[in-house]
Amino acid sequence: MSLVLHGGHGKSLFVSHDAIRIVHEHLAERHDTGIPIRNIAAVEVKKPGAFAGFIQFSIAGGKPHDNAQGLTGGAFDAARDGHSVTFNGLDDYDIALKIKVYIESWPAVDGHGGLAPGSARISAADEIRKLKALLDEGVVTPGEFQAGKARLLGA
Fold it and tell me: CA dist 9 to 14, 92, 105, 118, 145, Å?
């Protein structure tokens, strides 16, 4: 799996097999933050509308995000947060949803085939149902659905 989301404020999000990278380029500075997917506790995606949309990652043991509507939380905080990327277009929103599904369906294994400590087993059938709903909505392609299904079933 390789997904890229070029967002606002000079930030880009790169997803590889087992990690994400958020690259922030501003003037002559470049900050590159790598996060193993196993350390991501939650992913929030907000559809763009009157304000920019965003994808925001909560890290296990990290500070929870304020999702309040208004001038605190939401897109305003996401624009400043190092673990988020803002965007404006619906195409970028679709990419953000694909990233969310990939991360939430990523297997939480300990390297020996067992679940990592503190991980809850998510039913493969439930994840396939989520992917099917995204297929029906046109967010993922039939090929992406089949690849996700095969990954979830261990094929």
Answer: 15, 14, 28, 35, 31
